[in-house]
Design a protein that fits this description.
The chain is of the alpha+beta class. 30% of the residues lie in helices and 24% in strands.
Length: 356
């Protein structure tokens, strides 16, 4: 462990397990005010591509009394339907065979239930299908053709999600691809891809967490995943505890960026547990990023490209809102923005940075 990580973890080791607690869970804060509902407002937080999404989600809660998870699902639907967003839904970049495969999940705070779909083709709004999995089955995950058929059974329309723009980018990549293209593209956030003449190889996601005035929580994450991925690859977005997680007594969190890192760290679950112990959302996000960094430093012995100049050589961003209304976000390296909507309106704010 590097000196910076050792100092950080020594500082936080005072938060231990309470007697009888679930192994791995942190004891609750001793502050009795911490988990009281916020002051009558709805707060929605998302990745930076979600300003319209958080505005819609908040409006649905405040004006239609929609449950937070459903509001989050309908908020991200704006991005899922946007052909100009190359990382989500319609217009998302395809896998290496030129097929758009979508992943999504949602989680409901009051019921502590969740639903997800993965590697689903031809359905523009996977988040809405994940919500149906949550509400109308005893399952959490549906994948591939089964997820697609489930969506069709519930009246979703099958349609071609590959736009002309996405297809042109895929063809350009395919004409110059090499065996190395099956490796994750590494770099500062959105790295250049030699097969695209050093243009960025787009990847991304949208996460949205919503806190209602009564203190109930819900969240959703949806994505088309890594551009030109191996068919069938899924990232963190449809995995509960990785790309999203909420606990109605504590808060909600989610991730965008290198899905494998969020999976291997259980990042979203970890953030909620850190908030349970008393961290602010920003502190919890930074803690999770430093945990990821520690893991990446160890892994660099076998995967040298994961580590560069004393920090992880990939992008990852976490977002969180706590039950008392505090919110925050943190990015692994470099400047980044998140979207927030509250009584002040919908806007972007700067993420904290784990490694300057």
């Amino acid at each position: 462990m590097s000196d910076i990580n050792r100092r950080f973890f020594l500082r936080v080791t005072g938060a231990g397990l309470a007697a009888g607690a679930v192994p791995g869970a942190l004891k609750a804060s001793t502050n009795p005010e911490l988990y009281l509902p916020n002051k009558g407002d709805c707060i929605a937080i998302s990745s930076g591509n979600g300003v319209e999404a958080v505005a819609r989600a908040r409006k649905l809660v405040m004006e239609e009394n929609m449950r937070p998870v459903s509001a989050a699902v309908r908020g991200v639907a704006i991005v899922e339907a946007d052909p100009n967003d190359l990382s989500v839904g319609y217009g998302g970049l395809p896998n290496e065979l030129g097929v758009v495969q979508l992943d999504s999940a949602c989680m409901d705070g009051p019921t502590h239930n969740a639903g997800s779909v993965a590697s689903m083709e031809d359905i523009m709004h996977p988040a809405q299908v994940a919500e149906l999995v949550m509400d109308h089955t005893d399952h959490v995950n549906l994948v591939g053709p089964g997820a697609r058929q489930f969506a069709l059974d519930y009246g979703f329309k099958a349609e071609n999600l590959l736009t002309d723009r996405a297809r042109e980018i895929w063809l350009k990549w395919r004409s110059k691809r090499s065996d190395d293209d099956r490796l994750w593209p590494l770099g500062d956030t959105v790295p250049a891809d030699p097969a695209l003449a050093d243009e960025p190889r787009p990847w991304g996601t949208i996460h949205c967490s919503v806190l209602a005035p009564d203190g109930n929580l819900g969240c959703c994450t949806t994505t088309s995943g890594l551009a030109f991925k191996i068919p069938g690859r899924i990232g963190d977005s449809p995995l509960i505890g990785c790309g999203l997680y909420c606990d109605n007594g504590v808060g909600s969190a989610g991730a965008t960026g290198r899905g494998e890192a969020a999976i291997l760290s259980g990042g979203s679950w970890l953030i909620v547990e850190r908030m349970r112990a008393g961290d602010t959302p920003e502190e919890a996000c930074l803690f999770a990023l430093r945990r990821v960094a520690e893991q990446a430093e160890r892994s660099a012995k076998w995967q040298p490209a994961l580590w560069k100049d004393g920090s992880p050589n990939f992008g990852l961003t976490f977002y969180a809102v706590r039950k008392d209304g505090l919110y925050g976000s943190a990015n692994m390296r470099g400047s980044a923005w998140f979207a927030i909507a509250d009584e002040k309106g919908a806007r972007k704010e700067a993420c904290a940075v784990a490694f300057k």
